Amino acid sequence: MALIDGMLQELEQEAQTTRRLFERIPGDQLTWRPHPKARTLGELALHVAMVPGSVAELVASATTVQAPQFRDPSPKSASELIPTLNDSIAKAKKALGNMDDAALLATWHMMRGEQEVFAIPRVAFLRSVMLNHWYHHRGQLSVYLRELNVAIPSIYGPSADENPFA
Length: 166
What we know:
This protein is mainly α. 52% of the residues lie in helices and 10% in strands.
């Protein structure tokens, strides 16, 4: 099995969990934020939806890339989130699906101007940013929903609201 196969399987499994969370997002609360410095619920959810495809396309590009300009777009409605996530997962699978182990293990560089930000094997960047970073923000999203009194679905096991084992 190629290195990418397990990662793509994990990506699809985690996308299912993310979809369950997105199904609970109240459309009338997209502008809510827990703190003035925090992203809004809509901004955070759209970020979660876009991470896999954006990161995969970035890392599948040239060996050296310039750091992207980060921005926080807002969805117009909660109904945009699952289709955006589905498109993002499809982009990730397309960008990474044909990568062999040599490409994944090759050192990939991200620059900000002349300054090197990362020099890391592609597979390590994918694990750290496409997956771990994604899970981190999905966890934030679950806290936002809890603060809005929205029932949290099971993510890796029972939540206070849902027990898939009962």
